[in-house]
């Protein structure tokens, strides 16, 4: 269980004073955003959904429930263990903001991930 809070935000939005460590959890770097402007402390692409799952989902609200189920199944696999452990360690030290380029945070992997850490 985390000691500090985890929140989600769009990477395109200005950083908040209470963001803590800002972690990008997308597999691809956000379009049109320079690394300087992003203000990302850590890019953990290994915790993002697989390319196949991301392409299947396409942020289609009708597929969201199934996406959540499939993404949680992916997170339970060993290849995500190290990245999840890193997130949990960060949360023991200070607040963390999970960043994504997704337009609707409620449909994003960042929201699912926030519930898992």
Describe this structure in words.
Pfam families: DUF488-N3i. InterPro entries: YeaO-like. This is DUF488 family protein. The protein is of the alpha/beta class. The protein has one domain. The protein has five helices and four strands. The chain has a four-stranded parallel beta sheet, covered by helices on one side. Strand 2 (21-24), helix 1 (35-38) and strand 3 form a beta-alpha-beta unit. The longest helix has 13 residues, at 81-93. It is globular and about 35 Å long.
Considering the chains and any ligands shown, give keywords for the structure.
alpha/beta, YeaO-like, 117 residues, 5 helices, globular, DUF488 family protein, four-stranded parallel β-sheet, single chain
Strand composition percent: 5-15%
Count of folded domains: 1
Query: How confident overall, as mean pLDDT?
Result: 92
Q: What count of helical segments does DSSP give?
A: 5
Overall 3D shape:
globular
List the helices and strands and how they pair.
Layout: E1 6-10, E2 21-24, H1 35-38, E3 42-43, H2 51-57, H3 64-75, H4 81-93, E4 96-100, H5 109-116
């Amino acid at each position: 269980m985390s000691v500090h809070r985890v929140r989600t935000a769009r990477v395109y939005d200005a950083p908040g004073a209470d963001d803590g460590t800002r972690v990008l959890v997308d597999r691809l770097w956000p379009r049109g955003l320079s690394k300087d402007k992003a203000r990302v402390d850590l890019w953990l692409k290994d915790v993002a959904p697989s390319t196949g799952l991301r392409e299947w989902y396409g942020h289609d609200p009708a597929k969201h429930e199934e996406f959540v189920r499939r993404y949680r199944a992916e997170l339970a696999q060993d290849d995500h263990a190290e990245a999840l452990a890193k997130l949990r360690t960060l949360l023991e030290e200070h607040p963390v903001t999970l960043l994504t380029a997704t337009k609707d945070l409620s449909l994003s992997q960042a929201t699912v991930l926030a519930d898992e850490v």
